[in-house]
Amino acid sequence: MAIRTCKRNVEAYITKDGSSIKELIHPLVHSNTAQSLAEATVPAGGSTLLHIHDLTEEIYHVISGTGLLTLGEEDIIVQTGDSVCIPPKTPHNIKNTGTYDLVVLCCCTPAYSHEDTQILD
Predict the structure, then answer these.
(1) What is the spatial distance between Cα 55 and Cα 22, in angstroms, rounded to a whole number?
(2) Is residue 79 over pLDDT 90?
C-alpha cells in the first residue's frame, strides 16, 4: 500500500479543543493505519480548552514558541525543542505564554478524532 505524502499547503481547521490544526498525516486522507501527525498553532495569549482523549496517546513536540502545558495536576513550562507524552484519559491543555505563535507537532495513536475528545472546561 502506497502512503500519499502531505503537501505544505494543507488547510487548517479548528479542533474541538479550539486549536488551529493542519493534519499532516491522517488515516482518512493518507492511507496509513494507526496514527496521525498534525501541526497545531496557538496564537500569542491563546490557549486550548482543557480536554481528555479516552483512547488516544499524544506526543507534543514544540516547534517554536513557549507555553504552559497543563498535564493532569502538573503545569509544565515548554519551549522550542521540548517533547511531552500525554497518556490517554489525562486532562491537558496548552497556553501560549510568548509573544509569537506557539507551534506544536501532535502525534496521536490512535489517530486524532473529534469523537475521542472530551472538553472539560
Answers:
(1) 21
(2) yes
